[in-house]
Amino acid sequence: MRVNFVLFLILTSVAALGQEVDLVRLGYTKSEGTAEQIGMAASADGKYVAFVFKDKAIKIFDVQAGRFVKSISGPLSELFDLQLTNDGKIILIQASEVFVLDWKTEKTLTQFTTKGIITKSSYLSSANLLGVGQREGWVTIWNLNSLKEINTFQYKKHHVSALALHPNGTSIAVGVMALFGENNPINLFELKTGKVLAQTIGGIYSAVVFNENGKKMVTSGVNRLGIKTEVKIFDGSTFQFLKDVETRGVVVNAIMPYGGVISQDKFLSITASLSFNVYDLASGTFTFTTKSDGFKLPGYLKLGVGNAMPFALGNSGKFLLNSLGNNINQIYDIKSNSIIGYFFCDGNDDFAIVSKDGRVDGTPAALAKVYWTAKGSAQKTSLESTLERGFTPRLLTQIINEESGALATFDVEQVVNKVPVVAVKSINGKTFSSAATIESSQKKSTVAVEITDNPQEVTEVRLYQNSKLIKTIPAAGLKYTFDISLTSSFGEENFFFVSAGSKSGVDSEKAKFTITYKGANEEKPTLYLITIGINKYKNSKYNLNYAQADADAVEKSMKQSSSTIFKAIIPYNIRNDKAVKSNIITALEDVRKKSLEQDMVVFYYAGHGVMSGEGADAKEFYIVPTDVTQLYGRDDMLKNKAIAASSLKEYAQSINAQKQIFILDACQSAGALESVTERGVAEEKAIAQLARSTGTFWITSTGSNQFASEFEKLGHGIFTYSLIEGLDGKADANNDKKLTIRELSTYIENKVPELSEQLKGTAQYPSAYSFGNDFPIAVYK
Question: What's the gap between Cα 422 and its chain centre?
């Protein structure tokens, strides 16, 4: 059974007794997910976020790099809680054990065993202290700098139900709860001695939290009858009762079972029903809440902090939380008092990020899996369909750093309801039925499609075969006809989809069909190998050291590793003064004339790359031939002498070969006028949109504020050194003697950061965008 998780974020202002509907609606189909998220944690500096999945895998997301950088299985059987420290440790808490790991190396630094089963945990980042409460009232505190225990003491023989280390780093607040609701105060214990320093009034407390300076403390629990929520504010030093928070009669579903965060005199918590609430401590009232579907105990309630805790993203005033109980997390901004973004994560390091104004970032698989929904409409529009409109690399960093109050809300109704709808009407003159099996022994076929909704919004209609773009027709009314050529490149089944571009920048959903080709087997494929390496530029200040060596090595490695796959390898060797626009275009034209569907094209470029053009819409990425003498401020020169991404896109579409790989080791000039970060993001966006629109593979060397570094120790740039290692066999992850493009891409993405950190001290992250089908590129003996 397919279970859809649809996100309808109803934002209720309890104080004003009004409601506001968040127009950003997201959903995903649970059955298409690979791993259910059950917990998360963020480092206090906001640099890393850890996500825990039901299969116990833990994945670390680097906020600045904008990608998952580590996957840990961890020494655990039943995870209760986890924490990330600023100094690179991950704390895994389960049952009666605590493991402290260096998450980059996965080395276990130490392991602690407690007296009883752990029921609560508290981490204080400023002092790097961890405290855990246990059954029978035991409390243990460790110093994570020295990895030594500070103290273990006992409150009384009831399980610890509330726990919070005081910001002063010398004391801890502890509450215990009896089975039948016995009233017990919150006690403030001195860490080193276990001495009671202060005590609240008695109560049934489920959580306790301090504000940043420790002057205020908030508790949550129920009254003695267990039917009314009690949220109280105390003095954080004397524990003197100050006031009740007005809960407006909300019953037990409003309890915060794990704690929360106090920031700027606001208390943020998640309830047992997974509703997210914000309390104003000054007025003692709710100021924000997400509508909950009533009291429920989620299956992962035992996961201590996990999904039920807002985590501060540094000092930005933004918080990551999960009030939905699925794989979609929210980003709350305390300044605008609103949800401003969403983070979807899944297994295989897949993620999708969405901002309030409709920008998106993420991996191809996740962007295809998560969709927009419009109120009252069954239509689903995948995030992938909005790449042209709003793709923004490293979006999470932008959401954290920007002033969110100025952001407009992406109006789903206004945009999605205008998206064109395309349908396949006939194949070879026969009415199309999605339930029918279509077979053909003829290589040539004809497909007729029709725009059934919003035809006035169409800009073009595109046909993809085996995920590769093969034909684009400009807007021309309701009906469109495509001539196609079937192939056995990926086996008998030929997978097709049609999509329509729209004026809003949001594409239609794909209309899919499959034709099984029963014709004659095709001859063995040919590899067309274009390698370009430029050490010497006409303007000598742009000269590079290893571009020529990189291109030579890639050509040699591809010939050696791929020879058994192809009947022939046709090389196009373009180096230094020969690397002018006319020669590169001549090579591409030759491939276009000769290549067949079953063939493969590899285009490798080592030289300078640059973004140019006035205004965001006019900017374009160029690879820079040897005779370009000025990279910036001469758009006319780039248009005449450089090769634009749009030109590469035209060749990617018109070349028949359905297996195409573009690898760009494109350096940037240190004398750039624009900030490196802006260029990096703009380039990534251009390449990602290119990969998605053509259905081809693109792997590029540069990312945010990084150059494609070259080191004498390697004899190559880091990126190409990793590429060659991968081609020579190290990327064959499953040791089946066959290397696929996805295996190579994954190897490069993992190896380049590791190697650059070793040699340069700073991790460099390549970018890989692969919206096409996987296929082998090398076979080893």
Answer: 29
Of 570, 563, 567, 648, nearest in space to 605 by CA: 648
- Identify whether the C-beta of residue 176 lies closer than 8 Å to the C-beta of residue 208: no
Q: What is the bridge-based pairing of β-strands 479-485 and 204-210? A: unpaired
Nearest one of 388, 344, 389, 396 to 365, comparing CA atoms: 344
Lowest-confidence range among 206-215, 347-356, 381-390, 638-647?
381-390
**pLDDT tens digit sequence for 452-507:** 999 999 999 999 999 899 999 999 999 999 999 999 888 899 999 999 999 988 89
Q: Which of 597, 621, 620 is nearest to 608 (CA)?
A: 621
User: 3-state class of 201 per DSSP?
Assistant: coil
Say how far apart CA 501 and CA 509 lie, in whole Å.
10
> HSE on the CB side for 703, CA within 13 Å?
21
What's the pLDDT tens digit per position in 598-641?
999 999 999 988 887 665 556 788 999 999 998 878 888 999 99
Q: Is the separation of the CB atoms in 369 and 362 below 8 Å?
A: no
- What span, in angstroms and rounded, lies between the C-alpha atoms of 425 and 606? 45
Angle between helices 547-562 and 718-725 (to 10 degrees): 10
The answer to whether residues 697 and 662 touch, using CB atoms and an 8 Å cutoff, is: yes
Looking at the DSSP bridge assignments, the partners of residue 714 are none
Q: Is the dihedral of CA 400, 402, 403, 409 positive or negative?
A: negative
pLDDT of the residue at 51:
93
DSSP string for residues in 720-741: HHHHHHIIIIIT-TT-SSEEEH
Per residue in 133-143, pLDDT (tens digit) is: 999 999 999 99
∠ CA 4-10-12, nearest 5°, is 155
Q: Which of 716, 708, 631, 696 has its CA nearest to residue 666?
A: 708
Q: Which residues contact 91 (CB under 8 A, 6 or more apart)?
A: 81, 82, 83, 84, 85, 98, 99, 100, 101, 123, 130, 144
Grouping H, G, I as helix, E, B as strand and the rest as coil, residue 404 is: helix
Round to whole Å and give the CA distance between 507 and 596.
29
User: b/e per residue, 583-622, with b = 16+ CB within 10 A?
Assistant: ebeebbeebbeebebbbbbbbbbbbbbbbbbeeeeebbbb
- pTM over 0.90? The answer is no
Q: What are phi and psi of 691, to 5 degrees?
A: -60, -45
Q: Which residues contact 225 (CB under 8 A, 6 or more apart)?
A: none
Q: What angle do CA 645, 648, 652 make, to 5 degrees?
A: 135
Using CA atoms, how far apart are residues 343 and 352, in angstroms rounded to an integer? 6
Q: Which residues contact 710 (CB under 8 A, 6 or more apart)?
A: 544, 545, 546, 716, 717, 718
763 three-state secondary structure? coil
The residues near 482 (Cβ < 8 Å, ≥ 6 apart) are 446, 447, 448, 449, 463, 471, 473, 498
Does residue 229 carry a pLDDT above 90? no
Rounded CA-CA distance 719/699 in Å is 10
Which residues have a Cβ under 8 Å from the Cβ of 593 and sit 6 or more positions away?
A: none
Contact 719, 747 (CB under 8 A): no
